[in-house]
Amino acid sequence: MSTRYIAQPGLISDSVLWRADTTREAVRKGKLTLKENAEGKASCWQKFRLAETDDKKILFRWAICVDCYATIMCKSQTCDGSVKLYGTKNMTDHAKRCHLSTGKQTLMNSYVKRKPGVKLMESERVLVKEAEVRLVVEAGVSFAVVNNLGLRNFAQQMISIGSKHGNIDVVDVMYGSLTVHQSVFHKMRECQELIKSSVESIA
Predict the structure, then answer these.
(1) Which of 17, 18, 26, 181 has its CA 20 to 30 A from that of 196?
(2) Measured distance CA(69)–CA(24) in Å, rounded
(3) CA nearest neighbour of 123 among 15, 20, 33
(4) Within this chain, do residues 201 and 129 fall inside the same structural domain, yes or no?
């Protein structure tokens, strides 16, 4: 009997509900069950599972690492209903570097020295593009925000932290709005005191 899949790309409700981040969070909280892919013949499927809902349906495009819950796109569906397979290279690459399964920490130079000219896989580029679209739509900001230097510096900082600690939960990293508000206020006061001292030294 073939596996039943939820065909979600191209359907707004499904693609919003089962993104990579929401799928990983649901698995982490036990809202989705990991299930072996009976049709997966590649060795990487020993480390990856499919996500199953309470009504025994399999999420369409995600493969989930059993150790760190990294969620990797293994297939997608176009608006006309055709299915595109991405192969197992991303899963195989992840299996080799997943520090939770190997017990090895990420090498120091992998996060201290930035890697120039890295080319993402097509499936990874799709995820980045979808994340940028969600940022604009869900935050209600200008399209120009994706070119904002502050946002790019923030994203770079998150990448640097992730390369050190692995695929950690953003909830464990991000500060809340109150903390950011207080930090901005303190920075403003520091700048005011600096300006005041400079003026007094000239007078």
Answers:
(1) 181
(2) 6
(3) 20
(4) no
- Overall average pLDDT of the 111-130 stretch: 74
* Cα gap 80→125, rounded to integer Å: 21
- Cα distance between residue 79 and residue 11, in whole Å: 8
pTM, full prediction: 0.48
How many structural domains comprise the chain? 2
Q: Based on the domain organization, do 120 and 189 belong to the same domain?
A: no
Q: Could you tell me if 85 and 162 lie in one domain?
A: yes
- Structure tokens belonging to residue 190: 């520091």
Helices (H), the chain: 12-17, 20-28, 89-97, 99-102, 108-112, 122-139, 149-165, 177-202
User: pLDDT of 128-180, one tens digit each?
Assistant: 888 899 898 888 889 998 888 888 888 888 888 887 777 778 888 888 888 88
Give the range of the structural domain holding residue 163, as residue numbers without chain letter: 5-172
Kindly state whether residues 155 and 180 are assigned to the same domain. no
Mean pLDDT of the chain: 77
